[in-house]
Amino acid sequence: NFVRKALEEYYPPKHDLISHVVINSIVQKELKVRRNLDSIIIPNVFDFDEKLWEADNYNKDFKEKLGIKDNDILILQATRVTNRKAIELAIDVVGEMQKEENRKILEEAKLYNGQSFKGNSRIILVLAGMIETADDYVERLKTRAKESNVELLFVNNLVEHSRCVKNNNKTYSLWDTYVFADIITYPSIQEGWGNQFLEGLFAKKPMLVFEYDIYKKDIKGKGFKVVSLGDKYELDEYGLAKVDKKIIKRAAGECIRLLIDKDYREKMVEENFQLGREFFSHESLEEKLKIMV
Length: 293
What we know:
The strands form 4 sheets. This protein has a 6-stranded parallel sheet with strand order 5-4-3-9-10-11, with helices on both faces. Strands 6-8-7 form a 3-stranded mixed sheet. The chain has a two-stranded parallel sheet with strand order 1-2. The radius of gyration is 21 Å and the shape is globular. The protein is built from 12 helices and 13 strands. β9 (183-186), α8 and β10 (207-209) form a beta-alpha-beta unit. It has helices spanning 2-10, 25-35, 62-66, 87-97, 100-108, 137-147, 174-179, 195-203, 213-219, 245-260, 262-280, 282-292; strands at 21-22, 40-41, 73-77, 123-127, 151-154, 159-160, 164-166, 169-173, 183-186, 207-209, 227-228, 234-235, 241-242.
């Protein structure tokens, strides 16, 4: 009780010499309601001026190491593997992409990168992040994938924060995985902000996004173009997220277009990159910090 009372009375502290910083507008509102404190929003940012991630002599064998051919399609889930990331929604979309009518569209058109998608080409959902769940979430994902005819590939054993040799095995950085992704999935139903979203912008890749609360309030209004999974979900009998089947079908169709319409794709990712630079770069952070000092 003493600790609770102390926290309620003194935390966060009120003082004329203290400025409060929060990561999103929802927390900003809560701070005002609960403690009558004003605050400045400092969102996640990214260095949009660093060298773009590209194929090079180190990472050029990444797909080969995974057994992925040039005319296969690599769908990347770069986040950690945990329940709130709702990776099952990505599985649902990839499952829809796998249907005969969608594969036929891919087979009849050249892919954006000049490759030809063939009858034996695969659409693979690659999961690059660490598994951080104490329950049977991974097994439930595998079951969902099997039922949806989706190939999952867990590659965290090959991915580190930075390139290195670990136990005599070559590993790749997370940035390397983005280089070879055709589409990035970001179906999280809950985030404090969204680092992976910024990484996807910088990587210049199309993104499949569930519109979680912070995305809707602090990010969407900037004008980013994504393949949307909407903003409403339910949990099925297995505790996995699901959205309306019409939304899944539409999202899969948009992903197919992004795989075959090079001009449409490039316009989307370039405009997203520039918006990211404008609103969430280190330079934008500098301007926000100037307000505080």
